[in-house]
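Researcher: Structure prediction, please.
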Amino acid sequence: MPIESFKDLIVWQNAMALAKEMYVATRCFPKDEIYGLTSQIRRSAISIHSNIAEGWGRQSTGDYIRFLKVAQGSAAELETEIILSSEIGFLSKEILEALSNNLKGIQVMLRSLIRSLNANN
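Model: Predicted structure follows.
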């Protein structure tokens, strides 16, 4: 099936799903974290699929790759934030593991997509 839109990309679909999971996971965070860790986690999660989409809409492959690298950075930021959340008791080890596994899959896909675009550029 040809890719006609960023919405056809599995990595974008998985990043959207992860963002939704992060919203659900952070609902149980303390209310005094709404402008702290909760907000930061949600912004990082949103940034991943948003940068994939924004890069898709750019005029050049180089720009697209740059936005995919920003998405990678957001994924690393999110990984750090969910580890901290687990360590301070906001996320259980089981939830951390599930979220981390989903995030790792997205990180692998982003690296592969960047590598593919670089090879064809």
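Model: Helices lie at 10-26, 37-56, 61-87, 93-120.
Researcher: Thanks, that helps.
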